[in-house]
Every structure is written in structure tokens, then in C-alpha cells.
């Protein structure tokens, strides 16, 4: 960035960092002691900023080489490059969006005392305010010829070497450093904001209403998952962190909010890997008088609109440069039909458990708390899932694994449920909702039996939800989609990169 390129430093050792911190703390103390002389101390409350670095770059984009604009600006940014020479010093200041501008501090403009203080007190990582004329250097670099400068926030720890890529653990554990050092990290935050804004815009255009439901619940439900458990001192009772908002959103539909959605935080006390996080963002939506086909249409539109918001089209470019097409109409395949085709044998809801066990054993599949539907789903994942390339809705699931889903209108033993697979992982799921309170109670009782048998993911019997259903819920379609996974589908990144501050040990 500067007219003279500095030598690239190596990463400091822990001992060197400790020594640098001690030196920087001394500089901090001096800035505080000499606040009136050095412009407000180490952490002034306010600075005479007139514009931003991105605005300066946009406004003076046409300035010629070695040319002065005649205009004075006051900007602030973090020092990410620093080069001190005899009578002329250079610093690259970076704003929050990654935009940079060169600050040139010369003896002729600031005087001997100010130049000496710059050399003694300014370090990489400091936030600085500079004021001066906008110019271009002899190499055409847009710069500010500094007439006044102040430390805006003294950094007492040195930045990592910005010439070297941060390791994954550093990026995840110290995301603030990742945001300073890496453009992709900043882009991830912006892309996520664009996706959420797009989702809300699409829903609003279709007449959906956004609501909020409780994160702390007296019983967990709405999904088959192991919950986090906590205790309320105020109520002296055990509570659960939400695993899904489903049962509350359905109560809203009962109450007459016929198109409803929520973008929420869910918590599941389960494993963590490249596609799972114990805390994650989830979108759920319910549409009265729809079914699992209409909600699939809605889901496709939501995702395609979000892709366009980030990439400008339905063809997205992942972080590794791969292009992935989210456009067009997506395939819809039957779970039982595609599994039968893959293994060369017809599998139906009537296939004996003994045969499913044989097929699972041959595939090396082991299942805790086995039921026929779990075997079918695991066999499908083993034989079919890996061959899916384009976005695909996998339709019609086993009844015994989906206790909140309406039975299929024409196929016994099957429910009207789909899972959407993109990039090889499950991105969303959708149902024709079960709204019959009598059948729903039977399903809950069956789940309670599984829980009594030791299944930690089985649902509890929710009497308040059943009571709401007894007042009448219209036929509805519902869907749930992980926001983190949606970002994975659009960006090609792993889940820990799409979450700003993921949970780590």
C-alpha cells in the first residue's frame, strides 16, 4: 500500500508478544498522561471525522497520478501497514468493510514534534484519526497528506502477520482477527445479512407475518433431538432450550395467523461436525391451506431469491471458485422409489423388518432404537444420497419417523414429507402438517413410549399443543431450513465459516 514496501515480518513468539504488549502499554500510559499534548489520550470519546474511507475512495477515484485535490478530509481506520522513514512515514488505514487508504505523514506538514510522536507511539493495529488533503502519490496511490493525527484506540496486543493466512482454529476462535485480516470473512457477514434480508422480503411479498416464540420451554418438542436442559430459579422448574419453534408456530396458525414464519436460534445437545452446530439459526414457516407441494415451491423460491441477493443470479460461485446452479425447477424423487432403484429390489412400507435388518447389515449400518423407518432412511442415505448433484426434494418418508406429519393421501405407511438436499447435505424439510388432534395424540403417545424405552431424541406429550389443535387447525404446509446451511449452499463454505461466532471448546 505504501510507496515503500516493508519487509514481511514473521509471526512473533509468545514471549515476543508479551514483550510487545509491555511496550504498547507504556505507550498507552504516555498517551493518557500527555492527553492534552497528544490529542485526547489513548481512547478519546469523539473525533472530528468528516467522512469514511470508502466514501473518499469513491469520491476521488478519478484523481490523477501525483495530483492534489485541494480538499481536506478527516477519516479514521485501523493501521494495517506501517513504514517509518526519516522525514516521511506511511500507514495504510483500513475501515470496517476492508477499504484502505494511505496516510502520508511528512516533517514539512506536521512538524518535528508530531512526526517524532508518530514514530514513537503509533503501532500496527492502532485505530487512528487523520486529517489532511486528499492527494495521489508518485505511484498513483490515493492518499491523505496528514496535517493532524490522533490515536483513536491504542492496540496493546500486536496483530497477527497479515501477510500470512490465519489458521482455521485462529479464524474460528478469534473471529475479530479474521474479520480484520481476511476479506472472505467480512464477505461472509455481509452475505448472511443479505440472505436474511432476502428471506424476509420474499415472505413479506407473499403475505407472511414474522413472529417470535420462546427459547426457554417447559417441554421440548417440534423435532426429534436431544435437548439442552437448564433450571429456572424464578419458577423453580426444569426448562429446555428450544430445539424447534414448530409447536408454537402451529398455535399461531390455530389462532388465525395463517401465513407465519420465524428466523430463530435453536439448540440441540448433539454432535458437531462440518454440517452440524449445537447452536444454529433456523427458519420455519407455515402456510394454512397449503401442503408439502406448495411449501416446496415456496422453499425453492426463498433459496433462489437469496442466491440472487448474494450472487446476482441463481448460479452461485463458491469460495473455491466452483459454480453451482440453483436455478430452474428442482427434481422431486420418492424415498422408497429411489432406494428400490438403487438396490435393485422393491422396498415399501410393508417390507419386513427382518429384510431391512439384512440390508442394513450388508451395508454396515447400525441403528440405535431400531424401527423400520429408521432402517429405510439410513439405507437411503447409504445408497442414494451420495449420488445427488442438483438440488433435489426427496419425497414421502416412513410414518414411524415423522410423528408430526400428515399421512400420505394415497400411500399407506408413508407421510407427506420431503427433505431438500443441496451440495450433498440436507438443507430443509417440509410437511403436509398433521392437524387431526386425535391422530396427533396417538403419535405423541408412541413417542412417549420410545422415550420411556431410552430414546433421548423422542418427543414428549405436549398437552397444551394438543389442546390448541382441538380448537381446529386448518390444513397446512410447513417447512424448516437451517440458515447456516443455506449460507453453506450459497457460499460453498463449512458451517463454522458461515457462523460469525461458532461454539468451540
Please provide a written account of the structure:
Pfam families: tRNA-synt_2, tRNA_anti-codon. GO terms for molecular function: ATP binding; lysine-tRNA ligase activity; magnesium ion binding; tRNA binding. Keywords: Aminoacyl-tRNA synthetase, ATP-binding, Cytoplasm, Ligase, Magnesium, Metal-binding, Nucleotide-binding, Protein biosynthesis. It catalyses: tRNA(Lys) + L-lysine + ATP = L-lysyl-tRNA(Lys) + AMP + diphosphate. By secondary structure, the chain is an alpha+beta fold. It has 17 helices and 18 strands. The strands form four sheets. It has an eight-stranded mixed β-sheet with strand order 6-10-11-18-17-16-15-14, sandwiched between helices. Strands 1-2-3-5-4 form a five-stranded mixed beta barrel. Helix 8 (183-205) crosses helix 10 (292-311) and helix 11 packs across helix 13 (372-383). It is elongated, with a radius of gyration of 29 Å. The protein starts with 13 loop residues before the first helix and ends in a 7-residue tail after the last helix. Mean pLDDT is 91; it is low at 1-9.
Amino acid at each position: 500500500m505504501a510507496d515503500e514496501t516493508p519487509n514481511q515480518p514473521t509471526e512473533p513468539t509468545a514471549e515476543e508478544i508479551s514483550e510487545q504488549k509491555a511496550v504498547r502499554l507504556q505507550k498507552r500510559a504516555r498517551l493518557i498522561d500527555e492527553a492534552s499534548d497528544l490529542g485526547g489520550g489513548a481512547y478519546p470519546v469523539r473525533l472530528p471525522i468528516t467522512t469514511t474511507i470508502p466514501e473518499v475512495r469513491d469520491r476521488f477515484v478519478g484523481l490523477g497520478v501525483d495530483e492534489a485535490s485541494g480538499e481536506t478530509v478527516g477519516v479514521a481506520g485501523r493501521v494495517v501497514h506501517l513504514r517509518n522513514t526519516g522525514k516521511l512515514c506511511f500507514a495504510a488505514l483500513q475501515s470496517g468493510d476492508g477499504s484502505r487508504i494511505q496516510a502520508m505523514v511528512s516533517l514539512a506538514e506536521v512538524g518535528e514534534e508530531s512526526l517524532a510522536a508518530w514514530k514513537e507511539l503509533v503501532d500496527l493495529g492502532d485505530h487512528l484519526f487523520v486529517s489532511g488533503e486528499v492527494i495521489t502519490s508518485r505511484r498513483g496511490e490515493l492518499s491523505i497528506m496528514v496535517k493532524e493525527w490522533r490515536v483513536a484506540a491504542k492496540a496493546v496486543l500486536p496483530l497477527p502477520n497479515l501477510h500470512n493466512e490465519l489458521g482455521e482454529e485462529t479464524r474460528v476462535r478469534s473471529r475479530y482477527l479474521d474479520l480484520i485480516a481476511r476479506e472472505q470473512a467480512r464477505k461472509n457477514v455481509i452475505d448472511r445479512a443479505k440472505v436474511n434480508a432476502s428471506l424476509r422480503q420474499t415472505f413479506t411479498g407473499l403475505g407472511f407475518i414474522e413472529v417470535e416464540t420462546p427459547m426457554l420451554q417447559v417441554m421440548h418438542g417440534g423435532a426429534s433431538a436431544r435437548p439442552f436442559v437448564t433450571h429456572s430459579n424464578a419458577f423453580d422448574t426444569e426448562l429446555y432450550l428450544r430445539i424447534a419453534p414448530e409447536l408454537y408456530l402451529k398455535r399461531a396458525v390455530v389462532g388465525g395467523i395463517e401465513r407465519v414464519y420465524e428466523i430463530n436460534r435453536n439448540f440441540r445437545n448433539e454432535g458437531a461436525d462440518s454440517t452440524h452446530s449445537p447452536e444454529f439459526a433456523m427458519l420455519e414457516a407455515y402456510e394454512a391451506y397449503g401442503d408439502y407441494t406448495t411449501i416446496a415451491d415456496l422453499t425453492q423460491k426463498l433459496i433462489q431469491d437469496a442466491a440472487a441477493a448474494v450472487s446476482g443470479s441463481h448460479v452461485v460461485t463458491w469460495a473455491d471458485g466452483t459454480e453451482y446452479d440453483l436455478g430452474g425447477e428442482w427434481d422431486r424423487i420418492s424415498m422408497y422409489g429411489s432406494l428400490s432403484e438403487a438396490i435393485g429390489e422393491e422396498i415399501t412400507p410393508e417390507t419386513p423388518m427382518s429384510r431391512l435388518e439384512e440390508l442394513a447389515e450388508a451395508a454396515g449400518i447400525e441403528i440405535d432404537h431400531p424401527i423400520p423407518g429408521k432402517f429405510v432412511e439410513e439405507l437411503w442415505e447409504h445408497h442414494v444420497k451420495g449420488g445427488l448433484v442438483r438440488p433435489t426434494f426427496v419425497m414421502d418418508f416412513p410414518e414411524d419417523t415423522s410423528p408430526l406429519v400428515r399421512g400420505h393421501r394415497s400411500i399407506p405407511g408413508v407421510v407427506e414429507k420431503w427433505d431438500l438436499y443441496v451440495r450433498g447435505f440436507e438443507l430443509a424439510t417440509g410437511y403436509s402438517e398433521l392437524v387431526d388432534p386425535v391422530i396427533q395424540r396417538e403419535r405423541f403417545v408412541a413417542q412417549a413410549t420410545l422415550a420411556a424405552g431410552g430414546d433421548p431424541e423422542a418427543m414428549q406429550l405436549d398437552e397444551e399443543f394438543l389442546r390448541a389443535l382441538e380448537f381446529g387447525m386448518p390444513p397446512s404446509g410447513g417447512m424448516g431450513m437451517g440458515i447456516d446451511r443455506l449460507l453453506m449452499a450459497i457460499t460453498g463454505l463449512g458451517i463454522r465459516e458461515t457462523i460469525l461466532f461458532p461454539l468451540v471448546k
